[in-house]
Amino acid sequence: MPLHHRRILIVEDEYMLAFDLQTELEDAGAVVIGPEPSVARALSRIDREARIDAALLDINLRGEMAFPVADALAARHIPFLFASGYDDTVIGTRYPGVDRCNKPFSKPLLLGSLGRLLDAAPARHP
Hints:
Elements: E1 7-11, H1 15-27, E2 31-36, H2 39-48, E3 54-58, E4 60-61, E5 64-65, H3 67-75, E6 80-84, H4 88-92, E7 100-102, H5 107-120
GO biological process, one term: phosphorelay signal transduction system
GO molecular function: DNA binding
Keywords: DNA-binding, Phosphoprotein
């Protein structure tokens, strides 16, 4: 179980989608941080948390692009995935190595993508 006890930050502004993501990740054994619905709240959460193993980011949060959140995660060497309906041109040049799960996405695709992301990341300790 690659997500077992892994601390995953969810940054998503759609309440029902965030709730579904939280449930899916918790069912897979993850510890969910958030969900956070805005750039400001996500940045505050990143600053407060002692450990985040990975993050799942919606690109558009109530009309505000989540790039400051992605930059903060990258600066802390926290791996992340974008969860979005946007195409690769929106993130490709700015974040060429970051994977994207297209919305709507399936549970196996999401969990597999997060598992691969965590497997590829160096071990993090609190």
